[in-house]
Fold:
Amino acid sequence: MSTHHSDVLAHEDHQSAPAHPTALFDRAQKILDDLGKSPVASSAYTTAVAARLRKDGELLFPAARQWLLGHQLPDGSWGGVIKMPYDRTLSTLAAVVALAGESGPGGPRVQQAVDNGCRYLREYGGEWRHHYAETCAFETIVPQLLAEARTLGLQLPYQDFADLEEARAAKLRLIPLERLVSEPTSLLFSLEGVPQLPDIAPQLTRFLSPNGTMGNSIASTAAYYSATGNPQSLQFLQSVQAEDGSFPEFHPAELLEKLWVLHHLHRARLLRDPSQYVTWLREVLGETGLVAFSPSFPAPDSDNSSMSLVLLHGFAPAYDSSKQLHGLLAFENPTNFADYPYARQTSLTPNARVLQALLKQPDRYRPQIDKVLQYVLGEQHADGKWCDYWNVSPHYGTAHVAFSLTTPGLSRSIIAEPLNKAYQWLMRSQHRSGVWGFGDGTPEETAYAVLTLDAMADAGMPVDHRVWNNAAVYLREHLDDPSHPSLWIGKALYSPNLIVRSGWLAAYAIALARAAENAADNVSTLLDDVRAHVQPTLRGAGSAPESQRQDPR
Structure:
């Protein structure tokens, strides 16, 4: 599939769009100022793993048990508010093993929670087989937990998971123990699923980060601590436990957080001076162009590497990134680009972002561009959406593919139909209220839909001004929501709060600007509202109306 055609996609310049209200820039700066200050949202799975840890026979984190008891869902499961079968199965299995396997406070309440969790697993534990979104390391962790559950005598449908043993063996064959103990791999993120961990843990100490983490994963670090008693890892675990007793999915993830926040704010032109980040991006990319989600994580990935390049190209178009672009070829497969070396599967949005980055030098990377474009287009569902491995919402996958396909340089004849199908899916999936997402809609998914339509509008596709108006009203009302559903996929569902909130803000700013472009007389009220709505929060919680929900940042 050649993309070298003269009928390249037009791309309109919206740098002359109406200026955003100052309050939006102030909000953007507040997000930037908060980078790196807090972990991602709490995870039932990770909290369950930490709840089992002991030292000298005593539970190290008894508050984690109490958190689990207080966060069991009405159907008996644990996990995210959005029902994602992989997440619910793993989180519930980990929770019942933690609560049943360790003595501690709770008595009959604990037994009832375990019974309800086991009943959920008997009735719904196999639903993951029919869901498109798989959590990380599911096939290695679940067999380990099932073995522990069997030892505890828990009444579970063990036969329904029998084939996962072979799946785990296949995964571990990709990274055999000799490789695991000799070089950094992505498996460091999920050591709790490695059955030989007690025997090899001392050899893995060489990969322990200076902050005490193993692969930046709380669960992996907990498993390593359980096998070694390393005091540095215990100190790290103690440092990341929240006041309510819970634990985040992973920490730190400072590069992932900053890159995605900058990406959102840049798309909405909410960065006052993007050039100030050029030096930082060059340092992150280095000579190799290989970037991990944190400096303390030893294995680079194609997603963070390509996102760094996309931002660098946007902030410094004249910069010669030839060396760094060449680094992306380290992830090249025969038909696409891998997330990590030795990964069992590749995923959509990293490939879309690799495509976007390589389009900086289309003549040099024509074979790779054609290959990855064919892969991305082949992943489109019949109804027009794209689904990704890293976020349970199809709006995330569709948005990031749209960013890639609307990058200047691709042939209109190749991408017009896929983009039109995606646009039609967006219009069909929109709720009557004008928003998008699970249930009655969510701010995060509405934000992705707005960002997608903005990219399409830049490429010349018409979007009704009412779409922008409705989205602006909805997002304005939710800018200060104290919590939101977890949609991002790790070993369980999680939420990187600042990334999500930067997406809300970016989409709101875009919707306001687009509404102003298309119907200036209809947006004046929105502009008045944003000045009244945003400024009190920026002045401080004490001056905000009682009815206004506070931003937890």
Summary: The radius of gyration is 24 Å. Confidence is low (pLDDT under 50) at residues 2-18, 521-527, 529-553. DSSP finds 23 helices and four strands in the chain.
